[in-house]
Input
Amino acid sequence: MSQPIVSLSGLCKNFGALRAVDDVSFEVYPGEIFGLLGPNGAGKTTTIRMMLDIFRPDCGEVRLFGGPMTESTKHRIGYMPEERGLYRDQKLEPTLRYLATLKGLSESEAAQRLEKWLKRLDLWSDRNKQVQGLSRGMQQKAQLIATLVHEPDLIVVDEPFANLDPVNTRTAIEILAEQARGGKAIIMSTHLMFQVEAMCHRIVLIDKGRTVLYGAVDQIKRDFATNAVLVEGRGDFTALPGVLEARQENSHWHLSLAQDATPQAVFRALAEQDGARIERFELAEPSLDDIFVNVVQGGGEAPHA
Amino acid sequence: MRNMWRIARAEFLRLAGKRSFILAMIGMPLLIGVVMAAAILVALPKSDDRSVGYVDLAGVMQGTPAAGYAADEDAPPVLSFADESAARAALDTGEIQAFYVLPQDYLATRSVTTYTLGESPSNAARSAFRDLLQGHLVASAPAESQTVLLEGTDLYYRGADDARETPVEGYIVGLLLPFAIGFFFVMVVMSSGGYLLQAVTTEKESRMVEVMMTTVSPLALIGGKAVGLIGVALAQVSVWLLALVVAFVVARSQVPVLAEIALPWSTLAVCALFFLPTYVLLAGLMITIGSMVTEAEHGQQISGLFNLLFILPFFVFVLLLSNPDHPILVALTLFPTTSMLTIAMRWGLTAVPAWQLGLSFALLLGAALASVWVASKVFRLGMLRYGQPLSFANLLKLLRPATAEPLEA
Output
């Protein structure tokens, strides 16, 4: 695997008596979309702020691109914070051009790239409007442009899809996926678990300042999977060998298996059953949403965190 | 550094391009122009260049005036009348605008009676008569004393340390110009400080600060804003100053005494020296306030109190006139927020001792550095407290030694 773009080790931060972040460590690699998850007040934003040198950690180390944050490193980062905005009394395109030049682009280069981005995100005709005259969704698209226009190697987006309608959400997802395919590292903080499931390669789940889950999404789902299968079709699913309980849920059956039973053995038993018709057979993996709720409500302990 | 200039330029253009700013900038010169025009229009009809007369019953204005006396060519002629009735007749016909009577016991009483038809004689007429009277009075004195008696003595205050002296004479040059210069510098400091406060609160309200802090260094961000906004303030006050200079030049052609005024370069130099640290001090205060509050309006209310600390010397102006070395004024000279203005105001009236200048400058520098230190502490955390003000109790906690960022974000 290539060198990590972000490497946090043993990060902690106190706010008075409150330990907001406690021994958080993770790494983010080029080309991956990394989910930074956690309930409200878990310490996600504080972690991001320490990572980006907005706050100084009380202990632990942050390394970006193999070293500490420097002024030149900042040009390689695109950050869209949760609390975000633009200068409200300024026109859109000049504001974005100003931000792009602060990130190291020349005026002409910034203008060229902005034309492309504004057209792609359907803001070209609004480029000379004042920011305060734009809808929240349009402002958010503009903020996404400000985050990406200088082609950063590390993109940090906090709740990137808030305020976006389904069409624009899809566009934003496409853009982020495209950036990841281009080798950029993306850290995404969001509460929308189905999007994390769909987009992220790996995640870290922080609760009460501590890491409670860290790893590849597929692996985490497997780790949380109980010994059960989902079956959809016709047949008698209640008296199969190795099945402790069969429960019908909407259009499918949820079969809880005995500890020594394997899904393969159950599948074979089903296949041998006269008149049985199997339309779907899969391991009953919990959704990331279930895992999130389970871990957070269950005291923050994962089986293999 | 490049980004600091970019931010400075953007801040300058952002504010200088606003309609309200442009209106304020050109509104003041327009107001000055209107006031000047009105003053000239009112003053012109009153200009009376008719002669002025006198009746010398004391016999002190006979013979030739002192050699050093020379009548002003532009002044109204001064005519002698043998008695009051002749003078009165000339007054009634309008030949003269007024006449003076020196009684027989003038040398004992030194009282002179003025006769007019209602309106006072013009300043020029009064001066012409006074100069002629002085010329006659000193004519009998030894030749070497006549010039001193006619023109008076040039008095200077000299500090006990012998480091600096200032003329006593020349009230306008000595008092008003340094006062105006001090006022100019304080205006620049305060207006740019106000703009800075506005810029910081705007940054906070617009939720741009996190993006900016991951784009540029805090020094470039705050430094750029400070430089850009001082540029705005300088531009604004310079336009006003230019208007004043133009008004002054116009006024010089109308009021001859103004032609004698020279610019007090020493006042300018001392103000220029104190200007930068004073601005840094106020900038630190404004950044601190801007970082603590959630709304610009609230920040302006608090900053109003701090602004009072900078213009405090105006409130002791009467004391300044009566005793420019009063302990209160010495204290204000040493106090960092008031030092620049107090020194400028005292400059024309007394010799401010070198130790006061040195100590004042050192204290100001120290206060400016402390102000920037506090601002840098508060800015990083206060700016991220969206919708939550930072209380003074929390501010004190924040400034405790060995406390990095002790407050809830």
Chain A is about 35% helix and 30% strand. The longest strand of chain A covers residues 18-28. Chain A has a mean pLDDT of 88. Chain A has two domains: 6-221, 226-284.
